[in-house]
Amino acid sequence: MTQPVSPQSPMIYGMMAEFVNPTDLMEAARRAYEEGYRRLDAFTPFPVEGLAEVIGFKKNRMSTIVLIGGLLGCIGGFSLCYWVSAIAYPINVGGRPFYSWPAFIPVTFETTILCAAGFAVLGMLAINGLPTPYHPVFNVPRFALASKDRFFLLIEARDPKFDIEGTRRFLERSTPREVSIVER
Amino acid sequence: MADRINEDTPPEVSFNPVIQPGHTFGSVTEKISAIVLTRKTGKGWIFGFFISFCLTMALFFALSYLLAKGTGIWGINVPIGWGFAIINFVWWIGIGHAGTLISAILLLFRQSWRTSINRFAEAMTLFAVSCAGIFPIIHTGRPWLAYWLFPYPNTMTIWPQFRSPLVWDVFAVSTYATVSLMFWFVGLIPDMATLRDRSTTRFSKIFYGLLSMGWRGSAIHWHRYETTYLLLAGLATPLVISVHTVVSFDFAIAIEPGWHATIFPPYFVAGAIYAGFAMVLTLSIPIRKFYGLEDFITMRHLRNMAKIMLATGLIVGYGYMVEAFSAWYSNNPYERFMIYNRMFGPYAFFYWSLIFCNIVAPQFLWIKKLRGNTVALFIIAMIVNVGMWLERFIIVVTSLHRDFLPSSWGMYYPTFWDFATFFGTIGLFFALLFLFLRFLPMISIFEMRTLLPEAEVREE
Question: Which terminus of chain B has fewer Cβ atoms in its 10 Å neighbourhood, N or C?
Fold first, then answer.
């Protein structure tokens, strides 16, 4: 990075506090948001209900993406059946109509599910920015516990309210197990 | 470590945990990830893998010989053109269905007991579908041209026939395999991160690191992840019903006596779930024993699965009755002859074995004591596995071998190569399963954490 993201130090990504249970993390996250911090993130070993909302996450676009995928699959699958059976390769089987739509339903259904599921998985990975092999939070040695039994709150250095001393004092008020600086 | 409750004494109804008390986030994580990361590869694993690997090699041998010689090496001929290939295809794909049922439908119904069995049930689905997929391809006779089944622009300017259930089957099975794989992989991502962070060797760090895709457990990621997982479950639920429905259409759309019945789709789906739960029980009873996972796969899981098996078994029994009834009620001589021939013809022994395996044997599950006895459950599940294979044998063979014209009647005798291919796929299934048990967490670690009481956010 050439552009310094924070006035304090370009080498600092943010500050992280470690908690031993989800209740403490939730409480600290709520306080940080009330204090005016906006560039927050929290890391937990399992999904914690309501935590994303507490740190200011509002719009979950997953269902829209899946709906678009499903519609594309549905229209695509049906068009394929229609185009193949009625236009590209019409075969007269016992006088049945070329546009025999009930026979197209199973394939249409399967392509709908396939595209919706594909959009769901790839969309989720894309919006979450995965795969991300490197991320500054991994520089904190104790962060390995975020996939086991510890809960972390991160305040990013690019938050306008971020200040090494002030943020550290603020985080320590929530009685975390440890506060550490996240380096880039 | 929690005190283990003796599994053979059924606990009271009020005390029926999905996870034994005393576990913490750390102990759950360690216990499940240790199987993959630190536990020494046991002699039992090596032996089991060796046997299944040999059978897999037998499968490859049988397939190579098939490619060299053609389907003439099998027992199929006019009038029985389907034989083992289709029997095994339907059997395997049916087994796969329980995995999706456990992971998707029970998730939507908020059945938290599904958590400790969903991962390997999904793995079972994938491996069963892999085995199933082999059969229709090799049964085409010219498997190197199997891609002709897919619609793609080609220089021959021909296209698949979209009014044919066989083409529907291609779409249903390939969609099912793809969606099951994606569903399984999405479920694995957070656990891959756990294994990455616990890894001690460089190789496993890189291996699990690549698979985890840099998952870091951000709250916002979790939020999208959960929505995605739920949506996938919602999509997989109608999908799993549709797959066996389409498989049953392969039969029901034909005007063959014994196949042309409207009961086929529901009765096939129930049969698939029945067979699948039997296979999940067959696998989970030894696995929980050998890996000491009685704390996570408790008697409650086994009992619940036994109940589902009993319920779906009764639906299958109803299907058999309706088949016989509608054959009689149709007043169609061919249908009537078909059911008579099934019960008293040359394959009567297999028909009555099927009735014993699928209808009589599971009735013992009404007895509460037997539902809590792992040995009894294992035996009944094995009988059902056999029974469901016999069911497909009866459906395929007895309908085809004597249909409308007595001049075109015949008998079906499977050959050595039929059996070699069939047992070979069983070997492939178990070989994949052994690899899965060794290299991936067989229980979803992050979902197990959510079951612990300390996972709740307490309001002060």
Answer: C
